[in-house]
Amino acid sequence: MSTSTIQKTSPERTAEISESLAKIRARVASASSDRPQTLVAVSKYKPSADILVCYQNGQRDFGENYVQELVDKAKELPEDIQWHFIGTLQSNKAKLLASIPNLHTVQTVSSEKAASALNKALSAERTAPLNILIQVNTSGEDAKSGLAPLTSASIFSDSNSSDIQKLAEHVVSNCPRLRLQGLMTIGALDLSLSANEMENNADFEKLKETRDVLQRWLQTEFGSQEGQGKRWGDESIGKLLLSMGMSSDFEAALKAGSDIVRVGTDIFGSRKTKDEMSNQ
Ligand SMILES: *Cc1c(COP(=O)(O)O)cnc(C)c1O
């Protein structure tokens, strides 16, 4: 790895990104009281030079949506970056994705096929398991990927396991190179809520309930996970984490109990659309 191939940003751009990042960090800190939280800087479509500015300001967690773009950036950026894959995951891209040594978390797993493909492709040389989050489609929109949320009523009464339970069980039982770290949702912005009410977003509530229910079930099924060989829950706190909240609603998400927020636009500025990118 050599960052010397990366073009430098102008002093103005450097100042602009540094300032936005500092502001977002302050807002994250004040919205999350004293709980630990992770700010993932979402850098899709943004050049490596922009990422390097954040890195030089101490940022280590970055999120990308496209496998090839992530592979290319990971090659030229520092090895202690913790990459989060947050795009739609196709099983046939899992192998390429898993080849990135500093891939830290795949936030968008929603099939056993994808989990198995990641597990199989991961190098035995990796010392830490790859964190995965199960993507939940809390808003029920067709355009969004993810599995249906759980309710307390749905899980213990029903003898048929839900898709989320099946996937969780598959990861914990059959994918030793993965750790089921938590749940992720994109959700919908609820525009009927005022800024003060935004933490009551129904999608946040659904993800929390899903987490609570799944966590209880995992505890019953596999026992609590202490020490080495832990297969689910965050490495340090042993609980399932929640990834919810983006530029428009990350403070509300943190107040609602999110552990991981994914912020792009508010750090790097607006992005070109996918069509504009491919026409370049
Ligand atoms: C692009 C993206 C983000 C960042 O969105 P912003 O509104 O730019 O903060 C967060 N999460 C996912 C899954 C994304 O695709």
UniProtKB/TrEMBL annotation:
Residues 22-215 form the Alanine racemase N-terminal domain. The modification N6-(pyridoxal phosphate)lysine is found at K44. The keyword Plastid does not apply. Keywords: Pyridoxal phosphate. Coiled coil: none annotated. InterPro entries: Ala_racemase_N, PLP-binding_barrel, PyrdxlP_homeostasis. Its cofactor is pyridoxal 5'-phosphate. GO terms for molecular function: pyridoxal phosphate binding. Pyridoxal 5'-phosphate (PLP)-binding protein, which may be involved in intracellular homeostatic regulation of pyridoxal 5'-phosphate (PLP), the active form of vitamin B6. Belongs to the pyridoxal phosphate-binding protein YggS/PROSC family. This is Pyridoxal phosphate homeostasis protein. It comes from Rhodocollybia butyracea.
